[in-house]
Amino acid sequence: MYQSLLKTAPEPPWVRHSATSRQSAVEIKAPAVNLRALVYGEIINTGGATDQEIQQALNLDPSTQRPRRVELVHMGQVRDSGRKRKTVSGRMAVVWVACG
């Protein structure tokens, strides 16, 4: 759905001194396009969501979802709304919204 918009993303992040981290980045590169589209779609469809809300809605592990949202921020597609909502633990979390 949003894939043409999301193909020019930065390389998936990885820890420079870790061979396993680099391998994980290589392995996630192709699926990351679809995962970014899912994360972006959830943010669009809800009018804004926290990382935890996105993770729950899409049934994604935090270590899969959060890097995709960070990539969207770096791409200028998603931004901090300036609002916060409580997580299940009672802590406040940023509500992410689509830019433009």
Describe this structure as you would to a colleague.
α2 (19-46) packs across α4 and α3 packs across α4. It is globular, with a radius of gyration of 14 Å. The protein contains four helices and two strands. The chain has one domain (20-98): Winged helix-like DNA-binding domain superfamily/Winged helix DNA-binding domain (Arc Repressor Mutant, subunit A). The protein has a two-stranded antiparallel sheet with strand order 1-2. It has helices at residues 3-6, 19-46, 51-58, 62-74, and strands at 78-86, 92-98. Helix content is 53%, strand content 16%. β1 and β2 (92-98) form a beta hairpin. By secondary structure, the chain is of the alpha+beta class.
Q: DSSP strand (E) fraction?
A: 15-25%
What is the number of domains? 1
The helical percent reads: 40-55%
Question: Which value, in Å, is the CA radius of gyration?
Answer: 14 Å
- Return the string of H and E elements: HHHHEE
CATH class: Mainly Alpha
- Helix and strand content put the structural class at alpha+beta
Reported CATH architecture: Orthogonal Bundle
Total helical elements? 4
> Looking at CATH, which topology would you report?
Arc Repressor Mutant, subunit A
Largest sheet, in brief, is: 2 strands, antiparallel
- Uncertain ranges: none
Shape: globular
Relevant CATH superfamily: Winged helix-like DNA-binding domain superfamily/Winged helix DNA-binding domain
Strand order of the largest sheet: 1-2
Calculate the terminal CA-CA distance, rounded to whole Å: 18 Å
Short synopsis of the structure:
With 100 residues, the chain is an alpha+beta fold. It has helices spanning 3-6, 19-46, 51-58, 62-74; strands at 78-86, 92-98.
